């Protein structure tokens, strides 16, 4: 491929100045442009109005971003609670359609944080709404700090599963990652393979076992340090390589 890959990102839905906005954090956009050498395409969270198959025929990859919102418990059969908000049901609907179709069409997929959780739910898995409330688990939430660099600082190890997709990208590990999440994988979705775990056993990375192309989910935030951290950069470079290798439709 001579042109930069086109990467589709499903948007979050936000309300600002009495308008509904479809948006994505710029840290993901910068990682895609500066490290993956690609062009991000923001996709509105309008699952009933967007032809996902037509979209995926025109792009080279899909990236699911993290978000302040949590996957709605209705998506994985748990009772909703105000304590687990905020939610973004429009994004939930869009990403579920997008994940299934992306895998079916063999489009490369990188799913980060909320995206990692969405990937598990799309394959029939469940989530723990608040990991810090489970006995024996670490507190995976972001620290309270006014500086984003401190909130996104690399804080704990993850153990890499031998022989997996992630090991082929970052080596045998362990690697150190950041941690800014409340939800986490509970029951692993059918058709997913564990690629990494935190010291407390939390599943930190998964791949789609039978995917025809690159399909990786990570619970941490490699986008924030993609320009300076070796493992973070390697993930984005491997994703970009898969996107460039995707056969083009005539």
Compact description:
The chain is built from 7 helices and 13 strands. It is α/β, with parallel strands linked by helices.
The main β sheet shows up as: 9 strands, mixed
Helix content: 25-40%
**What's the N-to-C terminus distance?**
13 Å
- The unreliable regions are none
Approximate strand percentage: 15-25%
User: What structural class do you assign from the helix and strand content?
Assistant: alpha/beta
What would you call the quaternary organization?
Answer: single chain
Give a count of the beta strands, DSSP E runs of length 2 or more: 13
Domain module count: 1
The top-level CATH class is Alpha Beta
Look at the structure and give the mean pLDDT: 92
In CATH, the architecture is 3-Layer(aba) Sandwich
Radius of gyration: 17 Å
Strand arrangement in the largest pleated sheet: 4-1-5-6-13-12-11-8-9
CATH superfamily: Class I glutamine amidotransferase (GATase) domain
- Overall, the morphology is globular
Tags for this entry?
250 residues, alpha/beta, Rossmann fold, 7 helices, 13 strands
Commentary on this structure:
The chain has helices at residues 26-34, 52-56, 89-104, 114-122, 148-151, 165-170, 230-245, and strands at residues 6-10, 12-16, 19-23, 39-43, 61-64, 109-112, 127-128, 156-160, 175-177, 184-185, 192-197, 203-208, 215-218. The chain has 250 residues and is an alpha/beta fold. It has a single domain (6-245), classed as Rossmann fold (3-Layer(aba) Sandwich), CATH 3.40.50.880. The strands form 3 sheets. A 9-stranded mixed beta sheet has the order 4-1-5-6-13-12-11-8-9, sandwiched between helices. It has a two-stranded antiparallel ribbon with strand order 2-3. The chain has a two-stranded antiparallel ribbon with strand order 7-10. A hairpin with a 2-residue loop joins strand 2 and strand 3 (19-23). Helix 3 packs across helix 4 (114-122). The longest helix is centred in the middle third of the chain and has 16 residues, at 89-104. The two termini are 13 Å apart.
